[in-house]
Amino acid sequence: GESVGLHLPTLSVQEGDNSIINCAYSNSASDYFIWYKQESGKGPQFIIDIRSNMDKRQGQRVTVLLNKTVKHLSLQIAATQPGDSAVYFCAEKPYGNKLVFGAGTILRVKS
Amino acid sequence: DTAVSQTPKYLVTQMGNDKSIKCEQNLGHDTMYWYKQDSKKFLKIMFSYNNKELIINETVPNRFSPKSPDKAHLNLHINSLELGDSAVYFCASSLTTGGNQPQHFGDGTRLSIL
């Protein structure tokens, strides 16, 4: 697949287990954060977002945690499914409408 | 119905040529963007337009010229293509410029320079 040869961090999980993908962001002025999922041959797809005045937000099977003290963001996926296999990106908004993307993490789900 | 659509999906051309990529969004959004994703999957913003006006230009060579004929369209024209321009180019849109809203992406145009 497209991930062959990519030197991104990779998380391998068993189907049905929970996944945690981590992201360190760089700008303490960032007030908005988004997680995106990118499947092979597709564009980044919005998963969940969180504003800086929150430390946790839940969606369907996903939870985002924000720790502003250490500038850390995480995405938790419950009961991971094969369809969750993709590259996951965090993005921060330091000002205006500019989004700065992290490097990406490959999630591989083993059946 | 595709929300953000780009054409073409693949573009293979020779160094020195001029090419255009088109983008249309049917979400009624005011703001549109172009991003470049390199071979390491690193995604970086190039341009942002709000209601046909340029608001972000991220130190992109002037061989790249975006054009927004109306707020639903943002095209990217590239002159004198170079090998380093090979990448996947993504168009995106968001509701407005201000505030905290997600950007919605198209499926990309894979540009390969021979």
Number of helices of chain A: 0
- The radius of gyration of chain B is 13 Å
Average per-residue pLDDT of chain B, rounded, comes to: 94
Task: Give the uncertain stretches of chain B in residue-range form.
Answer: none
Helicity range of chain B:
under 10%
The percent range for strand residues of chain A is over 45%
Total strands of chain B = 11
Q: Greatest contact pair?
A: A-B, 27 and 25 residues
Largest sheet of chain B: 7 strands, mixed
Oligomeric category? heterodimer
- Tell me the helix content of chain A: under 10%
Total strand segments of chain A? 10
Report on this structure.
The complex is a heterodimer of chains A (111) and B (114). Chain A is mainly β. The mean pLDDT of chain A is 94. In chain A, 33% of the residues are buried. Helix content of chain A is 0%, strand content 54%. In chain A, strands 1, 3, 4, 8, 9 and 10 form a six-stranded mixed beta sheet that branches. A four-stranded antiparallel beta sheet of chain A has the order 2-7-6-5, with no helix packed on it. Chain A contains no helices and ten strands. Chain B has 114 residues and is mainly beta. Chain B is built from no helices and eleven strands. In chain B, strands 2, 4, 5, 6, 9, 10 and 11 form a seven-stranded mixed beta sheet that branches. Chain B is globular. Chain B starts with a strand and ends with a strand. The mean pLDDT of chain B is 94. Classes of the chains: A mainly beta (111), B mainly beta (114). Chain A binds chain B through residues 6-8, 31-32, 34, 36, 38, 41-46, 49, 51, 87, 89, 93, 96-101, 103-104, and chain B through 4, 31, 40-45, 48, 50, 55-56, 90, 92, 94, 97-98, 100, 102-108.
Describe this structure in a few short sentences.
Chain A has 111 residues and is an all-beta fold. Helix content of chain A is 0%, strand content 54%. In chain B, the strands form 2 sheets. In chain B, strands 2, 4, 5, 6, 9, 10 and 11 form a 7-stranded mixed β-sheet that branches. A 4-stranded antiparallel β-sheet of chain B has the order 1-3-8-7, with no helix packed on it.
